[in-house]
Amino acid sequence: MFGSQLATARVTALLLMLWTMGPIIALARVVEVKAPVPGGPSASELIQAGISEVRSIRQATPNETVTLRLSSGVYRLQMPIIIEPRDSGRPNAPFVIEGAADGSTRIYGSLEAEARPAGPADLAGLAAPPQPVQVVDLSAARGTQPLGLVARGAYNGTPTSQFEIFQGDNRFRPSVWPRSGYAEGVEARADPNSLGVRVKLPRAMFERFRSQKDLQVAGYWVADWAYEAQSMLSVDPESGELLVSRLVAPLPTRRVIRARVFNAMSELDAPGRYVLDPAGRRAFVVPVPGAAAKFDVAVARELMVLATVQNVTLRNIGFERTLGTPIRIENASNVVIENCLVRNSGNRGITATGGRNVVIRRSVVADTAETGILISGGDRKNLTPARHAVTDSIFVRFSQDSPTYRPAVDVQGVGNSVTGSLFRDGPHSAILVNGNEHRVSGNEISDVVKETNDAGAIYMGRDFTARGNVFNGNYLHDIGGGQRGGHRSLIGIYLDDQFSGATITGNVFHRVNVPVQIGGGRENLVEGNAFLASQRSAVLFDDRGLHKHRAMTLTGELNTKLNAMPFRQPLWASRYPTLATLPENQIGAPIDNVVKRNVLLGRTMIEYEFQSSRPFLSATDTIDVTMPAGIGPDAGTADLLKALAAANPAVAALGLAVADRAGALHDLTFAPVAANQQGPK
């Protein structure tokens, strides 16, 4: 024992209740762990001792529900807590790890670090910062571990960060030029010696950056949907160009890009920003006024790992301040994460891969460098569902460091669901879907796809075999307004690159640039939706599989994915009969799509991307409406929909409702975290 804290853990293992469920008598005990105190056992030692006590109880009485209760306070970990198969509960007697009901139990993957004003000696040989800064010594927290800005972007995987620093609840970001947005019209070209890519900035900025080290250059090098950040290698004084590391994106570099530069001392001018000096094992920071005086430096990659376990519940805990993904779940079954907070991570927030019945509910995921949650499970070849679920949760400020294809929720596999949740404040997609028979319903999505073009709030694409996905009762609003100029395609639900067999029903779209895009797919149903005050037409439609994507269709990626699935075998043929005959039935033609009985306020129902697309789709039974008297253009969606239903029986008959998840989820324990803007402003 490590003293009174661990003794308390044993003594307070109390019998709480007894109940009968059929032939099973389930007992419940609580093993309480007190938060660590200076000079006492570490958080890891305390929690591991508690788990050992739980194991002893379960070995003696395996039918008991045992709760490991972490009392209010901060638990700092440098290595994750591993929940092993032997810790599994039973269906009627789970193993529960819970914090205080008020949300005051927090697990951090960080150590405290002191900051002091940077003096002339600290700044010797460096560009002068535009304002006084502080310096944080990283040698104690990070030791000899790799330290630097990692490459990020759509084609760079999801890397674990090498450096994360926090002040209070604020996740700091590297200094950036320009201070907001991107520099437009930046010239880029492939290096003639194949060393990388050359970037030509305005001469004044080149002169400012040419002597600085450890810079990172980021931008939309190949497309407006493919961000990438790579290290600057050198400068060319004669041409005035920066040489940047080779891009991972497998597409040609555009001649003119949007770009920005990170980690320049000359740009360290805003609270919540830092400049990392890897060689000096230090960081220069501009503190956030009013925040805690001390800083936290992330040291742990993960905080909780649940591998091949069953019947485990995590509740009432905040998981924060990591280099990597705080919670990793692998090949686990009947795992519940409820009323938890996951934020301030250098990678994803949660991953749940393999297994079945992993449920994440009434939780908040915020301020993640990459994807918020990845849920992947089920067997596609056998069409076996995993039934993983994300429900009644809040997602904000996701994909902060990789702003394309790092959604709030990435859904893969077979038979998973995302329901009743709130998504807002993201640069690209809120939800990505890949696989079969997923359900996305009753969600509210707004203020996303803010930084990109040719992108969808809910996105899926380029797989003939990913059939049976349902999108019902979602509320998408205020998407695509105030974007950069030009002909923008910011989509609500985007069926890209011949995605087929989707059902889009009962959704409400209000002030969305383009509510739905059918990008050459077939057998998609768009019925009973409300398209209100769209900036373009309600449905954007094309036949790309017959021309610009013909090679991809016949011999390329679409053909490869088709033949990777047993689409002609009895199971698949019975589930998706038209897929079994796809190669012989006008492959590439966008046939058998249906757009009917939708409400249309403003604009037109269908916009054809190409003239050749027109013969393949017509809208039927459209309910055309006008703005009701007394309702202004800035009216709330619920009021507008109510007025439309009152004035038009056909609208009323659809029974449409606004999924106001912001209102419904305001009472979550961690909801205030989602409402508060963190980090650099």
TrEMBL record:
InterPro entries: Beta_helix (IPR039448), PbH1 (IPR006626), Pectin_lyas_fold (IPR012334), Pectin_lyase_fold/virulence (IPR011050)
Organism: Bosea vaviloviae
Matching PANTHER family: RIGHT HANDED BETA HELIX DOMAIN-CONTAINING PROTEIN, SECRETED PROTEIN-RELATED
Right handed beta helix domain residues: 310-380
Name this polypeptide is given: Right handed beta helix domain-containing protein
Coiled-coil segments on the chain, per record: none
Pfam families in the cross-refs: Beta_helix (PF13229)
